[in-house]
Amino acid sequence: MNYTRNQIRKILFLGPEGSYTQIAANLFCEKLALAPELEPVSTITKIMSEHLHSGYLHAVLPIENSVEGIVRETIDNMLHLPDGVRILSQCCIPVQHCLISKGDFSEIKNIISHPQALSQCQNYICEHFDSNINVTSATSTSQAAKSLNELDNTWAAIGNELCAAHYGLDIIARNINDNPDNQTRFVLLGAGEAPKQERTSIAFSTKNQPGALLEVLKIFRAHNLNMIYIESRPSKKVFGEYVFYIDLDCGANKVQKALDAVWEYCDFYRLLGSYSLI
Fold first, then answer.
1. pLDDT tens digits, one per residue of 103-149
2. 1 has pLDDT over 50
3. Residues 240 and 112 both lie in one domain
4. CA 103 remoteness from chain centre
5. Residues 186 and 213 in one domain
């Protein structure tokens, strides 16, 4: 059954307020004409392992960054979603990191942010601070910014303009990410099927035999399917066993025959969603 505007009453997002994920949630609401309540949750795992299993069937989460790659916490939890919960839509948000603080630049001795944000600003940190700078991880960029209100002026955070404004903090420097084209891909998860299907994501593990993965890829080629993304992650069951994640550049209606043929070479298979791009 396709989802409708009225069915999406609440969307969870990685918080607290002011996160890039909230920006993505706002974009989904705008482009898909949704008007749900938006609720921040502290971690990706809590959203996917608790709330999506307890009746909150819609969430926005980061899945890939163009510089740092896959968001492991999201992708590893995708296999454990309740039946019927799939990717409904995808969007990409430009990453424009700012250095945020309550004090002056000269006072900063500590920087806090999400590990990916810290990694994306390594060059800036190295060029503008000495080797004694203390770098600390937070669960999100907005959580880092929020924490500054409980810390002294020697602390700064890396985040976006929205979280700086939300928590009443000063922007010391803008666009400090090392790659100016940096962006993050977000997905809207929920029950039902997307009315518009432009991309399909699947996960599978192959049988432990020579050429099994090659045979799967040959099936995609035989059906003239454009595979635009592939990632492998440990299965966390048997050492040396991996789960492959693949994105195909078309809707499920165009890939179904190929997906039926893939089963022969797989021990495990799951359709993660066929969804719209905004």
1. 899 999 999 999 989 999 999 999 999 999 999 999 889 999 999 99
2. no
3. no
4. 31
5. no
